[in-house]
Design goal:
With 418 residues, the chain is α/β, with parallel strands linked by helices. The chain has 8 helices and 15 strands. The structure holds manganese (II) ion. The site of manganese (II) ion has 6 residues, from loops.
C-alpha cells in the first residue's frame, strides 16, 4: 500500500506588514495576500497529488485575529481538503498558542487539533498511522514537551508533531527545547517540526524535518518556501521531497562594486544580478534588496546620491515583476591617497588617523552628535539609531566617519581618484 502526506508549518496566515508603507512603490497588496495564496497552493497540491493527510506543525496564525476573516478563510480551505477526502492534523505554536487567541471557530470534521494540555495521539486506522503531538497552551513554553510523548505504537507509522526550537536555533525564541538524541529515543519514524522558518532536514534516520514557512514574509526570509511531501510505501517512508509554494520571492543580493568607477557599469551589474534572481523566481513577484560591496571610486557619489541611484534602477526595472526594496551601501572609499590633491589627501589621512585613535574619534563623534542631525544617507543600516553615534561598535563608528568624509569629498568634487 502506498499513500502520501504533506507536512507544513508556520503559515502565519495574514501576518501584518511591518513598515513596508514607507518604501516607495512597495507592492503592499501582493505581500499582504501572499500567505493566503501560498496556503491555497498547498491545498491544490494536496488535492492534485491525492495526499491522505496534511500535518500542520504550529503557528498557523500569526496571532490573535483582528476579526473573524482569517479564521473563516482557513476553515473554508480546510473544508476543500475535507471534500477531497483529506484529513488534517494540527497543533498550535507560540504565535497561535491557546492563550494568544481570544476568538475561536469550530474546526471542520476532517480536522483534528491536538490537545495543549498533554500529548495526544490520533490514529488513522485506514493508513495505519499514529500522530502524536501537543500544542502550545501559552506563548512561552520552556519545558521539553517530548518528555511525556508516548513511545511508538507497534504496527503503525509513528509521526511526532511538535513546535520547537530543538536545542537552540539562532534568531528563533528557545521554545519547547529538546534534543535530536531525545527525539530519536522515542522511536518514531518521522518528526514533523515547526517554528524554524528556514527549511532543514535535521536527520534522515529517523526523519526529523523543518519544512520552513510556506511563504517568506520579509527580507530576512529569502529563497524558495514551501512544504514537505512524504511518500509511505508498505508502512515505511520511501520518499521525502520539497514542494515550493511561495507566490512572492524575497532575495538579498550582493553586487561587488570593487574597482568599478563608472555609474552605468555599476547600474548594469545590479540589473544583471536582479535579472538572475528574477529568473530563479520563475514568474513570481520578486522583492529584493541589493547590497553593494567593495572599494570603489563611486562610493562618495553613492553616499551622496543613493536615492537617485535607486530611482534610476527602479525606472529601469519598471514593468517587470520585481520590487527593489532598497540598495544598501557597504562600499568603501579607496583608501589610497595616490592621485588625490593635497586637500583631499589631507582629509583622508586625518580620517585614517581617527581610526587609529579611538579616544579622539569618540570625542569628535560625541561633539557631532550634540551639534548636528546626521543625514540618513550615512546611516550604516535601516534600523540604526543615529542620535547616539557614540554608542555604536568601533567598526560602525569608523564607517560613519568614512561616509562623512566621502560626502565631503563628493560635495567638493573630489570623490574619485584622478
Ligand atoms: Mn513559532
Amino acid at each position: 500500500m502506498e499513500f502520501r502526506f504533506i507536512h507544513a508549518a508556520d503559515l502565519h496566515l495574514d501576518s501584518p506588514l511591518h513598515g513596508l508603507e514607507r518604501y516607495e512603490g512597495a507592492p503592499v497588496e501582493a505581500i499582504r495576500s501572499a500567505t493566503r495564496q501560498a496556503f491555497e497552493a498547498l491545498v491544490e497540491l494536496a488535492i492534485e497529488r491525492e495526499v491522505s493527510l496534511v500535518l500542520l506543525a504550529g503557528d498557523i496564525y500569526d496571532g490573535d485575529w483582528k476579526d473573524f476573516s482569517t479564521g473563516l478563510y482557513l476553515v473554508k480551505q480546510l473544508k476543500r481538503l475535507g471534500d477531497a477526502g483529506i484529513e488534517v492534523c494540527l497543533i498550535s505554536g507560540n504565535h497561535d498558542a491557546q492563550s494568544q487567541m481570544t476568538k475561536r471557530l469550530p474546526w471542520p470534521d476532517n480536522v483534528c487539533s491536538l490537545s495543549v494540555r498533554k500529548p495526544e495521539t490520533r490514529l488513522y486506522e485506514g493508513l495505519k498511522v499514529a500522530v502524536h503531538g501537543q500544542g502550545f497552551v501559552r506563548r512561552e513554553v520552556t519545558d521539553d514537551l517530548t518528555e511525556h510523548y508516548p513511545t511508538a505504537l507497534p504496527g503503525y507509522l509513528n509521526i511526532g508533531l511538535l513546535h520547537t526550537s530543538l536545542d537552540g536555533k539562532p534568531g528563533h525564541a528557545p521554545y519547547a527545547p529538546c534534543t535530536v538524541e531525545g527525539l530519536r529515543r522515542i522511536g518514531y519514524d518521522y518528526w514533523a517540526l515547526g517554528h524554524v522558518h528556514q527549511r532543514e532536514i535535521v536527520s534522515t534516520d529517523p526523519w526529523i524535518v523543518y519544512p520552513g514557512n510556506i511563504q517568506g514574509r520579509h527580507i530576512r526570509e529569502t529563497g524558495p518556501k514551501g512544504c514537505t511531501l512524504v511518500t509511505v510505501r508498505d508502512g515505511r517512508i520511501s520518499d521525502v521531497s520539497e514542494e515550493v509554494l511561495d507566490v512572492l520571492r524575497w532575495a538579498a543580493l550582493t553586487v561587488d562594486a570593487g574597482g568599478i568607477s563608472d555609474r552605468d557599469v555599476l547600474e548594469e551589474a545590479v540589473i544583471t544580478a536582479v535579472t538572475a534572481a528574477m529568473d530563479e523566481a520563475a514568474g513570481r513577484l520578486l522583492a529584493c534588496r541589493v547590497r553593494l560591496e567593495g572599494a570603489t571610486d563611486l562610493h562618495a557619489w553613492l553616499v551622496d546620491a543613493r536615492e537617485e541611484f535607486e530611482a534610476s534602477l527602479r525606472a529601469r526595472l519598471s514593468g517587470e515583476a520585481v520590487w527593489l526594496q532598497r540598495a544598501e551601501l557597504a562600499t568603501q572609499l579607496p583608501l589610497s591617497t595616490a592621485g588625490r590633491d593635497e586637500a583631499a589627501a589631507g582629509l583622508l589621512a586625518y580620517v585614517q588617523s581617527l581610526h587609529e585613535d579611538g579616544a579622539q574619534r569618540d570625542s569628535l563623534l560625541a561633539g557631532v552628535a550634540a551639534e548636528l542631525k546626521l543625514p540618513r544617507d550615512i546611516a550604516v543600516d535601516d534600523e540604526q539609531d543615529l542620535t547616539h553615534p557614540e554608542n555604536l561598535p568601533d567598526a560602525q563608528k569608523n564607517k560613519l566617519l568614512d561616509d562623512a568624509l566621502a560626502l565631503i569629498l563628493n560635495r567638493l568634487g573630489k570623490g574619485a581618484q584622478a
